[in-house]
Design brief:
nucleotide-binding; 10 helices; ABC_transporter-like_ATP-bd; P-loop_NTPase; transport; Rossmann fold; 4-stranded antiparallel β-sheet
Amino acid sequence: MVSAIEIRDLHKAYAKGTKALDGVSLNIKQGEFFALLGLNGAGKTTLISILVGLVRASSGAVKIFGHDVADDPYMAKRLIGVVPQELNINVFNTVREVMFNHGGFYGLSKVDINQRYEVVLDDLGLLHKRDSMVKELSGGMKRRVLLARALMIEPKVLILDEPTAGVDVDLRQDVWDLLEKINKKGTTILLTTHYMEEAEYLCDSLAILHDGKIIDQGHKDDLLLSDQSRHLVLHLQSEIDTLYEQDYIQAVAKDSKTIELTLQPGADLAAYLQKIESSGKKIGYVSSPKSRLEQYFRSQTT
């Protein structure tokens, strides 16, 4: 069976000599939900940019369902839907216009677009906003539009770059549920996220990218200790001034930017994280204290 994404010995060096990718090789199977994890500057954005044809590799090969992104870019791009981290939509377009413009760009007829776009918007709770301009939407709604736009072309591969960044608690769980449904229908999903809980909840397999190299990869059950998943470590990017309280969650400050969490049955971690984010604190990542992922991230950030 042809792999959904095949990356072989991928290198990317920029004009000033900076190596963004240094011999990356990955094989993502059809129908897999795969997480790509790494600190800022690890090379994740460069890798995704090469996958979608925005950046050309210095050497190596990338294939999407057997189509080389350099030699057969049209077919490769046609198979990929992308949800970027940053909003890259004309905010003066209505949601309907966004869907029609994107569908037209990929060669869909007006008939096909009419048949698809309302179903996609309805699945994401956006149908009532179809005539609203993007600039009038909340941050969470704008994230939904990005996802709806990607799904409009019914991609075989969906690439998600921090899909729940800045999303409220209820929507985050809704997005997780929707992504699971999309994956179960056969769509291959590649996810980047700084929420370890998100990767553990959603993904089958994962790889850790650091300084342009894959330093670990495998099935999540081999890389994460599931029996430790309710004892978590929360790493902030700014110093703690308050230990937030919530039912079924015990929080203990380990240092000025690290909180150890103990979650009892019934705990709502997403709501707890949203409370912290709403206070203006930026979350770096959440992980399990005894997992290999936590050991790796701790070694790179302390």
